[in-house]
Amino acid sequence: MTTLIDIAAEQKSAEVTDWAARIGWVVGLLLFIAFVYWLMRQGWKWRGSLQSDLPELLPAPDAPGEAKLELTGRYHGSTTAGQWLDRIVAHGLGTRSRVELTLTDAGLDVVRPGATDFFIPAAQLREARLDKGIAGKVLAEGGLLVVTWAHGDKLIDSGFRADHAAEHTAWVESINSMINTTEGTAR
Q1: Which string of b and e fits 10-44 if b means at least 16 CB within 10 Å?
Q2: Could you give the CA distance from residue 161 to residue 101 in angstroms, rounded to a whole number?
Q3: Which of 7, 89, 104, 181 is the most exposed place for a label (fewest CB within 10 A)?
Q4: CA–CA separation, 74 vs 95, rounded Å?
Q5: Alpha-carbon dihedral sign for residues 127, 128, 132, 137
Q6: Which of 136, 156, 152 is nearest to 82 (CA)?
Q7: What is the pLDDT of residue 13?
Q8: Residue 53: burial class (beta carbons within 10 Å; 0-12, 13-18, 19+)
Q9: Strand partners, 127
């Protein structure tokens, strides 16, 4: 009578006898993955060259004024306004990163550690709203702060997510109030 331990000890998987074929398949798979990543990189560079007419981003002024609001969180990218899947990659706008936003009377200062910082003058701000998504990032309804701004002859939506999402409403109200005040003085 054989015991359960004897049966378990007898079972073995088959030995690999064709190492060359196995190594060939692994190398082939790795080359295929590398090729796909290379194609993705080429597509990203091609998109950037298509958007080369976009002017350089503005740096923050030396004295932007007193901060109305400050926020830390994530920058999720920028798209053509109204087209949430048309990502803009020129000048580093497609690079996701941490972000520190500061709203002053002069405009919106976007500081991104490890990526290109930029400044949006108050006169170029068009709208702020809560949304659920921007190219490559979808959240719960109202989970994303989207700021629409003019840059050159293009309207751009930039998506931000605060570390504390409850801050988004105050940002929308402040930016839209600032835009309405700016438009009122321009008339």
Answers
A1: eeeeeeeeeeeeeeeeeeeeeeeeeeeeeeeeeee
A2: 11
A3: 7
A4: 11
A5: positive
A6: 156
A7: 63
A8: exposed
A9: 148
pLDDT at 187: 46
Q: Tokens for 154?
A: 């293009």
- For residue range 108-117, what is the model confidence (pLDDT) as tens digits? 999 999 888 9
Could you identify the residue written with the tokens 């108050």? 122
pLDDT tens, 130-172? 988 888 778 878 789 999 999 988 899 999 999 988 889 999 9
> Which residue in this structure is represented by tokens 């990659």?
89
Could you give the CA distance from residue 93 to residue 87 in angstroms, rounded to a whole number? 9
CA 73, 75, 76, 79 torsion-angle sign: positive
* DSSP β-bridge partners for residue 148: 127, 157
And the tokens for 10?
Answer: 């007898």
